[in-house]
């Protein structure tokens, strides 16, 4: 359950993983420790169990269909965005009086680019670090989520497994892309990224397109 998962240590353990079969470590961010996870072979097996279908129309899609942005789903007093910033950044400072909830500054070791990015909360600066839905919400909408009840969509939108603090411009570049249309420019992270997408899709019963499956298979076969 999300309520129990968003504790700092539990979240790090739930979402950071090692692709053991490749000897490649895929970390959620600078503040997360890697733990044993799925090998590339296991990810390929999970991929083969996903349903393959075409994209459904975007008809009716709206961010609001996945609940209010960055809800406090675990009722810890912090919204999901700040929970993920707290998990993925290092050397954080917090707004006084918020019980170490609102992150003011920190340092991100960006998994998508490999760059070190300094985060500073502010109208003109916060966008340098954004929270990416690893499986984009619009992609999920076209691959099963539009048939879900609102509660399940809200769970996906706030699930730590599906969230990463990343370089803002790269997140904007990705948009609603799936593995067939967008991959992190940092090649060393692609195995971890694709494996994580597969885990999310398997957890929620989302399908993949044939092009997406082919792209995922190609990445995992190279790990």
Structural summary, described in words:
The chain has 223 residues and is of the alpha+beta class. Helices cover 35% and strands 15% of the residues. The protein contains 9 helices and 7 strands; from the N terminus they run ααββααββββααβααα. It has helices at 2-5, 8-15, 40-48, 80-88, 137-142, 150-158, 168-174, 190-204, 210-221, and strands spanning 17-19, 24-26, 90-94, 103-109, 116-120, 129-133, 163-167. The two termini are 31 Å apart. The relative contact order is 0.19. The model is unreliable at 1-36 (pLDDT under 50).
Topology summary:
Blueprint lengths: L1 H4 L2 H8 L1 E3 L4 E3 L13 H9 L31 H9 L1 E5 L8 E7 L6 E5 L8 E5 L3 H6 L7 H9 L4 E5 H7 L15 H15 L5 H12 L2
Antiparallel strand pairs: 1-2, 3-4, 4-5, 6-7
Considering DSSP H and I runs of 4 or more, what fraction of the residues is helical? 25-40%
Largest sheet: 3 strands, antiparallel
How would you classify the helix and strand content by structural class?
alpha+beta
Rounded Rg: 17 Å
Shape descriptor reads: globular
Question: What order do the SSEs take from the amino end to the carboxyl end, as H and E?
Answer: HHEEHHEEEEHHEHHH
Low-confidence stretches: 1-36
Report, as a whole number of angstroms, the end-to-end distance.
Answer: 31 Å
Question: How many helical elements?
Answer: 9
Q: What strand line-up does the widest sheet have?
A: 3-4-5
How many strands?
7
Strand residues, percent: 5-15%
Average the pLDDT over all residues and give the rounded result: 87
